[in-house]
Fold this sequence. Notes:
The chain has helices at about 1-30, 65-90, 95-115, 140-155, and strands at about 40, 45-50, 120-130, 130. By secondary structure, it is of the alpha+beta class.
Amino acid sequence: MIKKLNCKIGWLLFILFWIAVDQFTKYLVVTHMLYGHIKKILPILNFVLVFNNGAAFGMFDQQPGWQIVFFVVLALVISTILLVYLFRTPCEKRLRLFGMSLITAGAIGNVIDRLWHHTVIDFIQFHIGQWSFAIFNIADACITIGVIALLLTFYQNT
């Protein structure tokens, strides 16, 4: 029982770690960059401060405000469900726990933005020449990696 509890506490700490990394990087960007200013990091990586009121890839960004409440509620419901499953999932199912933890961390990271700033802070931009991928943040990366990990567990039945 103690070993199982330690396992779950470890995953909760993992979630808190990624929430902290997400919020810290957003704080650094907001305090050290101007909106829309491009900071070249690598030949394929820029930091660009933008604000996203919508969902992935800026969907619903221009809506009158309902989307902020909708995405906060949706993220909190999904996070609650994932946390319940996290506590019910055996500790041996590490990839599944990894995926659920990352999705939860990312969802909560973006909820904090929506509640605190009334928008999501995005800043990571991958590009090749003139082609650019959507600008995102650490929370978005956590969600994406978490979904991939969960999909792998369904495929592998682990």
